Each structure stands twice: as structure tokens, then as C-alpha cells.
Amino acid sequence: MSDAILDIRNLTVELPPWADRPQAVSDTSLTLARDEILCVVGESGSGKSVMARAVMGLLPEHLRASGGAILLEGEDLLRATPSRLREVRGSRVSMIFQEPMTALNPVKTIGAQIDEMLELHTKLSRRERTERIVAMLKSVRLSDAQRLLGAYPHQLSGGQRQRAMIAMALILEPAVVIADEPTTALDVTTQSGILALFRDIQRARHIGVLFITHDFGVVAEIADRVAVMQHGRLVESGTAEQILNAPKHAYTQSLIAAVPSLAPRERRMKKDARVVLSVAGLEKTYHAGGAFGRSGRTVRAVKSVDLSIRHGETLGLVGESGSGKSTLARCIVRLVDAERGSVVVGDDVDLMTLSRGALRAHRRHIQMVFQDPYGSLDPRCTVGRLIAEGPIVHGVSESEAVSRAHALLELVGLERRAADRFPHEFSGGQRQRIGIARALALEPSILVADEPVSALDVSVQAQVLRLLADIRDRLDLTMLFITHDLRVAAQVCDTIAVMHDGEIVEYGPTSRIYAEPRHAYTQSLLAAVPGRHWAPPFTPALV
Amino acid sequence: MNVDANSAAAPVTEPRQPARAWHSHAAELWQRFARNRAALAGLVVLVTIVIVALVGPALFAQGPFELAGPPFAQPFGQFPLGTDMLGRNELVGIVYGARTSLMIGLVATLFATLLGVLLGGVAGYYGGVVDEMLMRLTEMFQTIPSFLFAILVVAILSPSIGSVILAISVVSWPPMARLVRGEFRALRNREFVEACISMGMSDARVIVRHILPNCVSSIIVTGSLLVATAILTESALSFLGLSDPNVMSWGFMVGAARDFLQRAWWLCAIPGVAILVTVLAINLVGDGLNDALNPRLRRL
């Protein structure tokens, strides 16, 4: 391509000998035009971030680019001297990272950090520099730019920080901006603002943006062209239109097929099923920072929440980070003690009124599946023991519990011999299956799933969701499903409760909420789902 | 629940790593330990000292306090390490002293570790008021200069093996308690602990079977270094004459010979070197254990 500003040719990056494959990036070629957004899509371990870092000359210690060339405006960055690279970084190509809190220096003000770029690369006077920074902060739509100059990163919200990061990346007017999952750590409503900003800035300044993401919704939102990577290789590239609606490569097809649709999936519900879990007036307040009788900051995490779930129903608890949905779930299973309210399981047992000892026997009715597949399994226990221990605690004989564990492993799609191994020997998706098997071991009637697929790659996510749906239907389980992802919620939940600032602001059948959201917050959430206008060309693989 | 064995659960297409058994896990630990040459050398020295302490006394007919020959005999003569100012065999003293030092170091560390793990564990697991109170108590012990405190304890209880062990335990548990509290606090909020609680396990079971095994490596590393400190404290106490008068120890030998430093410097130097070598070896082994048990701290 003649107008290519960044031309990656046959790039190969070697991994250290102890890695699971020889190369992070193998013989990959890509071109980025002067005026476009190229999305590089892939699952974790596909080599997309390594490639981006190779462009910046920021490869981690053990990684080495061993072949190919990275041409920026015709100049090979792989062969550039360190001092030349320093000149290029920031001024010709700059990078935006996933987590702005760690990418910004916490002890320097935003103004000083941006100013440093100008000081190093230009000969402008202090006043000219400040003027330029204020103008730049305004152009990334940070209101009150003058005040932000003196603000420290922790005083800004996540979205503001990412905007400041973008301002910093653009201040020297580079020709290429590399963004590595810049919206992954943000809430969905914040994300949509940042994505719109990327789009507008790219159009206004005619720069090339290499945008790395794992999320096809984001791709549908902003990409001009798309490159799909798998195991360090480029499997397919083309215009956004081609890739999103008519992908040719089987891997791209499977990735897109795994994206949950936003159209709610209808499921027949028994009309007059009995209520198995009812929560009334639940409140939880956190106190922080108080000592020696002084009252500290208080956060009302959950404010008088009522909800009820019928037998066989799946209730989705949807909200952004900090909305109190995880706290609510932990109050319901009483991992956290709420101040007020009742949690009635079955007909008569109010978990809130039970003593710690009495609670123990009742815990088996309501079990939890956790978010983090790495942190939720005791690394020192074999998988078999992890699953069998619950029943053993509740008085089931050892041999019976072990055989039940074996059967459960098969139920969740693992082999029996997995029982003798340790959690670290399994992948994220497999661990989540183990977590599900553990929760099922006590034969609960209610399953509380706290973001069970958020930490998983999209194809694995689809498998785990399918498994959960399958198990729920076959074992006739009732489920409380917590998620921030409206696509996932549409596929799994029968009813939805939208949480905002510790309150349930809207509560109703999934189809009604998606078709005609009533509360302003629900409307803004739905409007912010990336790629909402794009319908994946394949029917989702969910049951 | 009706779990049908052959039911069609979703197929697993993710890659699977090969199984690894426990003995290979131990082999891996050993490999990581052995990679640290200094630690390996420390281990060899330490094992030698332990063997000497265990079998050494059986090789000598006379006890450490018995007179064996003329006073101030030079080393490498009739007696390999010479004799002291009263004509006691210096080598026998060193061998018996090894036994004393290691025994007191180990037992005192064991007590300190038990106390530290108990208090730190309870404070870290329960948090809140319990944590506040236990940590204030810990700080109270930490603010008293530890060696003076140890002297005080031995002086009050009259010098004996038991009082020395007690004194050393009393001054060395606070760092262990703080460490264990920190580990417990971090693990307490991990999802696997929440999973245990939500399955209905008792606190004792969660603590003993799930949290404790996950901080055992830190406890071992810190404990090994505590042994070295305990040996030093014991030597210092017996140097001052604050130890059991009927038990030979290195610190006592240095202390007793210091009046004759100009005439027979080796009487101080030999037990001093023994203390140095032992403490150094234990520290090296402790470092090696740290590398082996907490590999993530060192790599990357």
C-alpha cells in the first residue's frame, strides 16, 4: 500500500525457551494507512500486544524481535539506535495503555506529565507549552482543563485519566497512535465516550491508529480495517465490513459466532413457580478511615434492595463497577453481613437471622461461582478434594463425596483424572468449570454467579455460558447472575435488575428491558453497548 | 442430584497441560534451591554442624567441663584446638556448644513461630477489634529493645536452659506474628477462602486447611532466619554469663576466654568463628529456601 505509514513486514518475536511456544509473533505482516483505524483482534496469547510493543521498542526483557522489519514512514524501527528510538517515541508514534492509573505517574500532576513531553521534544516556552496543553485537554473533551493541569492521577475518574492519557499521546502530534486495549478497564458508558473520542480525533487529525482489542463490539464501533491474530500469526485481514459480516477464516468465524447477541433469548418459564429466594430491604454501608472514635468516610454500597427469584428463574444483576452488585451478592450468601434486611431462602429460612453456627448448615442451599478463575481455587488442594470437601463438611462420607466429585467433573466437561491434579495445571476456562463443579457439589437450589465469564476469552466464555445454561436447565437450578456485560445478560437472564449507586433502578423481564428501557440509566447503559448496531452474521451458539 | 455420567456437557477444546505428580513438585523445589550455589554451600555446612552436634559428643570420653590437660595448650598439638585456661579440651567444648546452640535456636524458634502464627493468624483472619488489640500487644513487645528484654527475663527467672529458651521466644515472636497477619489478611479476601466459607466450613477448618498451607512457605523462610537470630541471642546471653552454668555453649566460651585475649586469642576466636559460620550457613539456607518456595518474587 503506497500510503502506508506503518508497515510491519514479516515480524518475528522470539519467546524465551521456557514459554509454551517458540514465538510470540511469527512472520506477521501488517500495514497501517495514514488515515485509518486498524483494529487488531485476538484472544489472550495471540501476540497482539507483543506486536504493539515491538513497534514502540518496548518489548519485555525476555522477548527479542528476531526477524522482519517495522517501517515507520520508511524508517526501520527495529534497526534504529536507542537515541533515535527515543526521538521517535512520543513524537512520531505514541502509545496508550490499558490501565491509565498505572500508566500515569501517581506523584506528578497531569499538567507536569504532559509538559515533560513538550519540554523534551520541543523548544517552546513555558507559556506556549501551557497553552498547547490546555488546548489539547479541551480537544479530548476534558472540561475545566485549567484545573486539571494541577490535578494528580488519583483525583481523576477512570475515564478522565484515559482522556488525559490520550491528550499526552497526541500532544506532539504523532502520525501513529497505538492503543492497547484502551477501554477494557473502563465501564461501558465511559468506554463509549472514549471510543467516540478516538473516532473523532482520528478523523480530525488524519492519523493512523493501531487499536488492539479482544472485543468485537468495539471493533464494530470504530474499525476501518481489521486484522485477526491467533497464536502469533495473522489469520485474516480486511475491511471492517468484510470481517464483521462475511469472515472467511474459520477462526474468525468461530470468534464472531462466540459474541453473544444483544437480542434477548426467549425461554419458557413456568408461570406460577414458587419464589425460592426473596430479599427485602437489604442495606450495607461500608465505613472507611475512621479511627479513635472519629467517623471516617461512609459508602452506602447497597441501599434498601428488594428482589425475588422464582424457582427455575435466572435473575441478572446488571451494573457498572461500584454499583454494589457484587456486595449485594455477597450479602445474599452472607459472606458480608448486611446491616438491615432479610434474605429468605425456600419458604421460611431467613439467612440474616441465623447465628454463624446455624448458618453453616444452611449454606449448602445457596452456592456461589466466582469471577476469578485463578483466585477462586485453593492452589494447594487437588481438584478432587476441592470439589469433595464441601459435601464432606456437610457429613457425606469420603468415598461418596469423591465419587460425586468424579461425576461432577464429567458433568462440567472434564475428565475424571482431573481430580488428582492441581488448579494451576488447568486453563482459565477449565478452572471456571471446576469452580462450577464445586458449587454444584452441595446440590444447591440456588446458584449465585458473580461475573463468572468476565475473566475469560470470548470463545471460552461462550463455552462456559453454554455449560451454565445447560446445567441450570438439567438440574432445574435457580440462578442469580451478576454481570456488567449486557450481551451476556441478554443470553442468560430471564429477568434483569439494573443496579446503580447501590439501588435497583429498573427491574423487569429481560425482553421488556432491552426493548423499552424506562429508567434513564438503563437507557444510557444500553446505548453504550459497543457495536449495538451490528448483528453478528451467525446465530449465537448458546442454547 | 441426578448426575448422568455420559451426558452431553460442552466439549472442551482448550489445550491441557500434562499432569504433574507431587514427587516432581519436590524435585522442582530442590532444583530451584540448588540453583543458588551459596545456599547449597550453606546447606552442606549446616548439615555438617548438625551431624557434629548429634554424634560428636559420643566420640569423646570426657565431658566439656572436665580437665583434659595443661591450660593454654596451643592448637594443633596434643589437642586439635588446644585447651582453655583451665585445661579443658577446646574441641569438646565446641562440639557440645554446637548441640546447645542448635537446640536452643530450634526450640526457641519453634515456640516463637507457634505463638506468632497463632496470634498473627487470629488477628489477620478475624480483623477488626481482635486485630487491633493483638497488634497493639505485638507492638508493645516490639518497642522494648529485644536484647535488654531477654536479659531481663533470664535475670528474673534465674539462668537455665528453659529460661533462655523462654526469653528468646518472647522477644522473637512479634515479626512472625506481623508476617502471618499480613499473609492471612491478604488470603482472607481471596475468592477461594470466600468459597470455603460459603460452602459452610468452620473457621478452624478454613484457617488450618486452606489459609495456613498457603503461607507455609513464608513461615518457613522467616522461621529459618529466626533460628539464626536465636543462636546469636543465646550466644550473647551466655557471653554475659546469663545461661545455664552446667551447659557448655559457644557464647560462654567466648565470654570466659575474653580475659585472656592477649595471651590466647584463639580461645575467643574459635567459638566466635563457630557462631559466625553457623549463623551464616543458616542465613544462606534461608535465602535459598526463599528462592525455592517463593519463585515469583525473584523471577521477572
Structure, explained:
The complex is a heterodimer of chains A (543) and B (300). Chain A has 543 residues and is an alpha/beta fold. Chain A folds into three domains: 1-92 and 177-257, 3-Layer(aba) Sandwich (Rossmann fold), CATH 3.40.50.300; 97-173, no CATH class; 275-288 and 295-528, P-loop containing nucleotide triphosphate hydrolases (Rossmann fold), CATH 3.40.50.300. Chain A has helices at residues 48-56, 82-91, 100-103, 110-121, 126-139, 145-148, 158-170, 188-205, 216-222, 240-245, 250-257, 325-332, 356-362, 383-393, 398-411, 428-440, 458-475, 486-492, 510-515, 520-528; strands spanning 4-14, 23-33, 36-41, 64-72, 75-76, 93-96, 176-180, 208-213, 225-230, 233-239, 275-288, 297-310, 314-318, 340-345, 349-350, 366-369, 446-450, 478-483, 495-500, 503-509. In chain A, the strands form four sheets. Chain A has a six-stranded mixed sheet, with helices on both faces. Chain A has a six-stranded mixed sheet with strand order 16-17-18-13-19-20, with helices on both faces. In chain A, strands 2-1-4-5 form a four-stranded antiparallel sheet, with helices on one face. In chain A, α7 (158-170) runs parallel beside α8 (188-205). Chain A starts with a strand and ends in a 15-residue tail after the last helix. With 300 residues, chain B is mainly alpha-helical. Chain B has a single domain (36-51, 89-295), classed as MetI-like fold (Orthogonal Bundle). Chain B has helices spanning 22-35, 37-59, 90-126, 128-143, 146-157, 161-188, 191-198, 203-239, 250-257, 266-293, 295-298. Chain B is elongated, with a radius of gyration of 25 Å. The model of chain B is unreliable at 1-20 (pLDDT under 50). Chains A and B meet through α13, β16, α14, α15 and α16 of A and α7 and α8 of B.
